[in-house]
Structures are given as C-alpha cells and as structure tokens.
Amino acid sequence: MGNPNVLDEVFEKFVNEAKLFKDREVLRHDYLPDRLPHREEQIRILGQAVAPVLKASRCSNIFIYGKTGTGKTAVTKFVLSHLESKAKEYGAPVKFCYVNCRMTGSEYRVFASLSQNLGLTIPFTGLSVGEVFDRFRTGLDATRTLFIIILDEVDSLIKDRGDGILYELTRINEALHQSKVAIIGISNDLRLKEFLDPRVFSSLSEEELVFRPYDAGELRNILLERSKLAFLDGTLSEAALSICSALAAAEHGDARRALDLLRVAGEVAERQGASAITEEHVREAEKHIEHNKVIEALKNSTLHSKLVLLSVYHLGKASGSSATTGEIYDIYNELCGELGVSLLTQRRLGTLVNELDAMGLLNSKVVSMGRYGRTKKIRLEISRSQIQEVFGTDSRLGRMISYAPKFLAKTTRTAR
Ligand SMILES: Nc1ncnc2c1ncn2[C@@H]1O[C@H](COP(=O)(O)OP(=O)(O)O)[C@@H](O)[C@H]1O
Ligand SMILES: [Mg+2]
What we know:
This protein is of the alpha/beta class. The chain has 19 helices and seven strands. The strands form two sheets. The protein has a five-stranded parallel sheet, with helices on both faces.
C-alpha cells in the first residue's frame, strides 16, 4: 500500500505551486489562434481564391505545399471559417468539409466522411469504394451547393493508395448538375507532384500556394503571441523564448516544434517548482522531445506503413532474426484481412519498406544467399517496446500487437 500523504503532497504541490500556466490548451497543435502573424500574404491569396463562391460560382482548385509546422492547416481553417460566416451573411450556398487524410486513412473513409458531412449515412464497411463515391456524388448533387473539399495531408493517402481518389474528385464536376466541387489539397511533401498523374496534377493545381519555413525572428513573434495566452505574466524569460525560436528555426522553421518546446519547457519548469521558465528548462525540454521523436514518427506513419512495421514486429518475435519482403507481405496480407482494409501490391509495400528504412524505423540490407542469389533482409531499427507503446494505444491497431499470425503458426520459416 502506498502512503496517501505522499499523493496528497503531490496534488497539493501541483495545485498551489503551479503558477506558470494560464491556459495550457492554447499550446496544443490543433488550437486555432485569432491571429496568424507572418502569413498575411497566404491568407490574402487563399481568401481571393475562394471568394468566388460568395457570388455562387465555383472557385479554383488550390494546391498548398509546405513542410510541417509552416501554418498550412491553421491558415486554411482560418480562411474557411471566415468564409463560412461571410457565406451565411450573403446566403451563398457554400459548404465545406475538412478531412485529414492521414488520420482518415483510406479512400473509403475519406468519401464516407465527405458523405457524412452532407448528412448521408454510410456504413462503416461493406460497400465498395466506387459505391461510396456514387452515393456521395448523388447526395451532393441533390444538396445544390458549392462544396469545398479540403484534403489535408493528402500526400500520405497518395503514397499509400495512388492518386485514384484525386482523379475521381477532379472529374466529379462533369457528372454534377446542380452542385459544384472545388478541392483544396494540402501536402507536407514538396515532391508530391512526382506521385501524381500529370492530368490530375494540372487540374488540382489551378492555383498553387507555397508556405516557406519560418525564420527564428518569425517564430519568436508567433511564440510571443501564444505565450501571452499560455503563461502568466513574467513567467517566461526572454532567453527561453529566444532559444525556443532558434532551435525550431534550425530544425526546419517548424512552428509546431517551437510550440512543443515551449509547452514542454513550461512543464519541466512547473515540475521543478520554478517561478519562471529559463533557458535550462528549454534545453531539458529539447532532450525530452528528442526522445519522443521516434514515437512521433511511428504515430504519424500512414496506416499501411504501420502495418508493415507490425508485420516485421511479428516476424521478429517469431524468429528473432530479420525477414524477407515476401514474408513481410504474407503477414501484412493477414493483418489487412483481420482489419478489413484492402491490400497494397507487393511492389508498393517494397516502396514503403524503403521509406521506413530512410526514416530509420526499419533496417534493410541486401545479403547474398550463395547459390540462391541475393535477397533483402529487413528488421526493426527501433525497439520492440516502442512499437508496443505506440500501437498498443491505437484504437484500430491495438489488438494486432497481441495477435498471433496464422502464417507464423503454420510455416517453419527456415524452410522458406
Ligand atoms: N503564423 C502563425 N501564427 C500563429 N500560430 C501559428 C502560425 N503558423 C503556425 N502556427 C501554429 O503552429 C502549429 C503548426 O501549424 P499548422 O498549421 O498545423 O502547420 P502545418 O499544417 O503546416 O503542419 C499550430 O499549432 C499553429 O496554430
Ligand atoms: Mg497540417
């Protein structure tokens, strides 16, 4: 039995001494501030691009690029929420739907969430992607609206699935009579163009908007504004603010990283019972964040990348050694079946393995098998406990950690 006095002390200390944060929530990634300094230009351009819908005509498709943390999501949501209230004011028949493709995971679910946005009911599974798309199109036409579709982090969907979904969506207007669609695509990967069919690319990027990384001075202003809401007056030192900005600028001008540093530094200072956040707290925060990077990379992987990692995880558990692409594909196939998601080709899986290798999550090397030729051997580059930690709490993939692949039960792997 623990000593209840100890806990009492912990809680009392937290309540009485935590005098740094005014509102921790404003440092969350999805908090949308009222002002977005250093993005006035992007706000204006995006505003001009979508404005035609207020006069009931379709706006251009727009493609937005920029590295993570450059404000793409914040700016887009900001512009669209203002557009929404203007549209109400003018009685313009405008609707919009924001979908984060990485979180949504599949074409089926993207179309399902677009449909739900229009009030249509789509079963969780059971229809083909084509059927969901048809229902969406028919339902949309009946609503007589200008429908703006925001596909955020669309790069993750396209790398997993190819550009079929964009192909369908960019052609949908041909089949609509009473409604019109405009697409705002957002990509963290600046090379997305290379993954797209040229026709899809050209219709999608009727307009293009690039978000450059922030420099240290810009990050400092962003942090300063946010810190006024987040912390009590006088609790954030100048030095801490500057070092947060400088570290994030050196990374790749990532405002998200800067805000993370600030939040974690605040938490470190709070735990130490400090009365202000200093440079040392930021240094400490940087170490914490560094440690969490692998975890973050895992969490942010696409569904199929996660399934590949899980497959390697299971193969490693069975044999303790590395696996071949063929073996990974067999387990992956089984996991997809269990979860009811459709398979990628073995070739695409090979591409994912290479990407995961480049990210430092997998390690693959080509080894000679003597007279059997050469083969690629793949193993986890990260610890098994990190996989368990991240996937164990994932609502969809959680049970796949303890799942025992039938493939492993019925084959003696050395015989393959
Ligand atoms: N110009 C800005 N002013 C204030 N906050 C910003 C600005 N740009 C980004 N942010 C904040 O930084 C974080 C990351 O921005 P986000 O829009 O999610 O980046 P992206 O979508 O490009 O990855 C969010 O919390 C956002 O509110
Ligand atoms: Mg974003």
